[in-house]
Amino acid sequence: MNRIGTILPRELRPASLFLKYSYCCSTSRPQRRAACATVTSAQQARCFGSKPSPFKGQNIQVLEQTISSSIANHTASYDEDGKGPVRVRGQIVYKPIAAADDKDAGGWQVQQGSNKSTSTLSFSMPTSHQLNNFTNIRNIPFIHHFLPANFPHSVDKSYATYASYCFLGSVAGSSAMVLSTQALLVAVGVGTQSAAPMAAALNWVMKDGVGQLGGVLFASQLGKGGMDVDYWKNKTRKWLGPLASSKVGRKKRGNFQRGTADTNPKRWRMVAALALDLSTLLEICTPFLGTEYFLPCASIANIGKNIGFLAASASRAAIHQSLTKTEGKTSNLGDVTAKAGSQAILASLLGTGFGIIFSQTFCSDYGTAGILAGFVVLSAVHQVCTYKAIQAVPLKTLDRHRLHIVLDSYMKSNLDQIIGQSGIKKQNSWKAPLTPTEVAERESFLPLMPPDQSVRWLSVGASLVDICPSGVEELESLMIRQETEMNGPNQYEKYILKVLSSTATGSDDGTIQLTFFEGANDDDLIAGMFHAYAANECMRNEVFRNDDASTIVEYSYAVTKSQMPQFMSHLEERGWQMETGFVNVECGSSFRLKIEEL
Predict the structure, then answer these.
(1) Strand, helix or coil at 500?
(2) What distance in Å separates the CA atoms of residue 185 and residue 283, rounded to the nearest whole number?
(3) How far apart are CA 420 and CA 544, in angstroms?
(4) CB-based contacts of 274: which residues, under 8 Å, 6+ apart?
(5) E strands, 31-80, where?
(6) The dihedral of CA 49, 51, 52, 54: what is its sign?
(7) Cα dihedral sign for 583, 584, 585, 586?
(8) Which residues are CB-contacts of 573 (< 8 A; sequence separation ≥ 6)?
């Protein structure tokens, strides 16, 4: 009875069935069994007989296929007409057997030879845009062994561009390493009569050991500060103590987040490429310095190579995660990572062969100078391909730079609503933020360079003595009270924001200092950044030119509280990952505040 009441649609259930169902729900289990047993077969026949047949008298056949063979068939090549796969293996076709009379229950008949191959279309046709992007790649012989299962449906549309440029860059990088190995062998003395085999072998082993040790030391600092220059400056000040330079007399300016391998994998991937090429260049230049300088030069180069390998490995997971398509709670991250490894192996083999040919053909007549010239060409190809590959990846997490691109475009697109009072009331007139793909086209990830202009006016995580130099009264004035009833009368925002005019900072447009409290979550980080960018737009506008800092902070906070719910929903709709831990706007030297009662 319970099953009947659950399976049948409400409109197909008879009135007596609802009476029986209500009675069953209000009695004990033995009574429900007895009551449900009173439903007659005629009532059940009327219930099920009223359900329309989904086949409507048509001749049908049922296709049965295992999961593994279905995945393999999705990687098959399209035929010349583009109408479907050439062969579908592991598929069985069943046809119903008509019942001879009412007593015969019928059955299923297996179509002869159906488990071998059939040209039946087992999945929907891709769009013309997908065919233009992927048909040429899929038609390469044996290419399906190096692509994720169910390609291109199981990966992001940028996967083909990323994989192609990565493959070309890996070929160029492997070829350059062949040239550097040849130069190192010349530097260690191989091929000369005065070379001592034991000394050459010992030097070779020692430079590998020193390089691996340097890689371990680099990995130990990877999660603490990474490439954050401010992190190393603060650490140097602690080491030097009184000898460190003071901050008195300096102009107050913003800071910027270089990020870790998780928050900014693109920048770390470029660091890896630059470290590998610079190390290879040092190895090639070692013969010019002489045999006595082999060990220090080769050791430093090996340290750089290990740093490059570690940086590339650390950034690979976040990049591959952005290229996957997650369905429900499942993901093909493992398959994408495995195929990336097989592509790298193939590129290494081809690059090694090309490097040997290149060395014997073009570099043998010119010695080390010819090797150096060949390296310059291969390094340029490697750097350009690496940049193009990671530029195509749309990262769906928000770090400070990507959030800057989103908020800067959002504020400029909705400037009239921000400045005018009508913008606070008419939320539907605000334009939506950028998507991850649109942000990827504008993203900057070159190492050791500020990625955007917010470094000139925004400082995130300022110290307490910088943001509140006057004491506790200034801290109280900067704390923002929440004006919602559910939060209570004494609840404050998880950040403080201070606006400094151009005369106080010595800059053209002034500076904004933003510091978060301990316990601030992702929503608080986005709200604080939204408030800062809204205040910056007001500070640079002529309407607020004569207003004081407190007026700008109050007005921009009103805009923030009015627009934040719609902005957060738009971010999620546009494809950004809004789960906990996917927003990071602070750098390694940023401070957080925690107020405790004594």
Answers:
(1) strand
(2) 10
(3) 11
(4) 308, 383, 447
(5) 62-65
(6) negative
(7) positive
(8) 432
421, 426, 395: which is closest to 321 by C-alpha?
A: 395
Residues with Cβ within 8 Å of 571's Cβ and at least 6 positions away in sequence, in order, are 398, 406, 433, 526, 578
Give the count of beta carbons closer than 10 Å to the beta carbon of residue 489.
8
The SS3 assignment for 155 reads: strand
The β-bridge relationship of strands 91-97 and 62-65 is: antiparallel
Q: Is 139 helix (H, G, I), strand (E, B) or coil?
A: coil
pTM as predicted: 0.73
Rg (CA), the chain: 33
Quote the tokens at residue 524.
């608080």
Contact present, 5 and 21 (Cβ < 8 Å): yes
pLDDT in tens, the chain (598 residues): 444 444 444 444 444 443 343 344 444 544 544 444 444 444 544 444 555 555 555 577 776 665 545 544 544 444 444 444 444 555 677 677 766 555 555 677 776 555 544 333 333 444 444 444 444 555 666 788 898 888 888 898 999 999 999 999 999 999 999 999 888 888 777 655 555 566 667 777 788 888 888 888 877 776 655 555 555 566 666 666 655 554 444 445 556 666 677 788 999 999 999 999 999 999 999 888 877 888 888 899 999 999 999 989 888 888 998 898 865 556 788 899 999 999 999 999 999 999 998 888 877 677 778 888 899 999 999 999 999 999 999 999 999 999 999 999 999 998 888 877 444 445 567 888 999 999 999 999 888 788 888 888 999 988 888 899 888 889 989 999 886 655 555 688 999 999 987 665 556 668 899 999 998 999 999 999 999 999 998 888 878 877 888 899 999 999 999 899 999 999 999 989 888 888 988 877 788 998 887 7
Q: Parallel, antiparallel, or unpaired: how do β-strands 592-593 and 511-517 relate?
A: parallel
Q: In this structure, are residues 294 and 286 in contact, taking their beta carbons and an 8 Å threshold? A: yes
CB 497 within 8 A of CB 532: yes
Do 391 and 440 touch, CB atoms closer than 8 A?
yes
Q: Which two tokens stand for residue 420?
A: 């005018």
**Count of alpha carbons within 13 angstroms of residue 459, beta-carbon side:** 21
Distance in angstroms (rounded) separating the CA atoms of residues 302 and 283: 9
Position 553, amino acid: V
- Helix residue ranges, H only, 359-514: 367-391, 400-413, 415-419, 422-425, 436-442, 464-467, 472-478, 502-505
Give me the residues paired with residue 460 across strands.
514
Rounded Cα distance between 590 and 525, Å, is 13
Measured CA to CA, the distance from residue 589 to residue 229 in angstroms comes to 9
Q: List the beta strands (DSSP E) in 75-197.
A: 91-97, 107-110
Q: Is 39 helix (H, G, I), strand (E, B) or coil?
A: coil
